[in-house]
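Late entry, pyridoxal-5'-phosphate complex.
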Amino acid sequence: MFEKEMEGLRKNGLLREVRDRAGRQGPSIFVDGKNLVNFSSNDYLGLAANSALIEAAAAAAQKCGAGAGAARLLSGGSGLHGELERKAASFTGCDAALLFNSGYHANTGSIPALAGPDCTIFSDELNHASIIDGCRLSRARTVIYRHADPAHLEELLVSERPKSERALVVTESVFSMDGGIAPLDRILDLSARHGASLYVDDAHALGVLGEGKGSLAHFGLDRENKKRNSKTSEPAVMQMCTFSKALGSYGAFVAAPKEIIDWLRNTARTFIFSTALPPSVVGASLAAMDILDSGEGRSLVEKLRANIEAIHEGLAAAGLEGFSALLSPIVPVLLGGVEETMNASRRLLEAGFYVPAIRPPTVKRPRLRLQVTAAHCGVDIGALLAALKSMKIPS
Ligand SMILES: Cc1ncc(COP(=O)(O)O)c(C=O)c1O
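Prediction complete; structure with ligand written out below:
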């Protein structure tokens, strides 16, 4: 079964294989018996191996057990789950938050709950697979607007939306494959003017933008968001954040006005029909939120910012243009086709750097995707730039 299809993937250089790491996630990792500088992690603040998270995970498991045992609406919730929701809501400046088992669960559960067949969804063309799947599951009509293009979004909000229908605009804030940042100020303004709700996927922005609070704070929209959300008759703003990236743990939450969170708790199928997160994971996320909301967290966010600047400046100086936004830790480098990109990734691996190639169908144009974190030091970044330069990779 599938031999022909698998052979097709192999022939086109698109076969995917899992490479297991030995030891912890961090700025250097041990893969296939080799120590590598890791530029392929969403662990933007270097918290995945932080001892406070590990100790909190162990303590939560001791106190509440290894598994949750059931969904939250049955007996699966612990006091820790509720505490994490309250912390997430207050940190993002929202009324309330609801935990999901992952960002994938959050998007595939919330979007169908917010947008049924009587709604039109307006979705950025580069949105993540979990958003695309959420839109498909919703059975709402989905209209795709050009990437990060508010003018096109506005055109479609006018031409493609039957007057009586509800509308939901869905976008990532920091795009996971390109590192671009959506113009949320304009998108929020447009959605408000056209009576559409806005769902922002902040998976790569929490802990990164807006002094760690995410994209709405970055654009100065968090207060605006609160004001707008306090008038419950108006369409709302929802912020989906993950604990699995900058927070170094696992799981996700949607922060929104209380009435929306109450609705999601009652209708989001991935929340209702899936076993709750294990207490250890919730304990680690609580410890990560405590760090993010402290002086230590603010220093990590600043260190990340400095490293982002260093990699962008270094690439420009080496004549290797990464094309993402200057504030983004995700820096794609385009080198041509699948073969050139795979070769470059292989050569970097031989030189001691883990920078996987991202290929179709994940992206249309193959690329090396560099991800910089607060845990990298200047030497790591300098060595990667020197390796890229010495390989004479064209920009
Ligand atoms: C933009 C975006 N949204 C959602 C997700 C899914 O998050 P999780 O890994 O927690 O399922 C990802 C993860 O890759 C992502 O990049």
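The chain has 16 helices and 14 strands. Will revisit in the morning.
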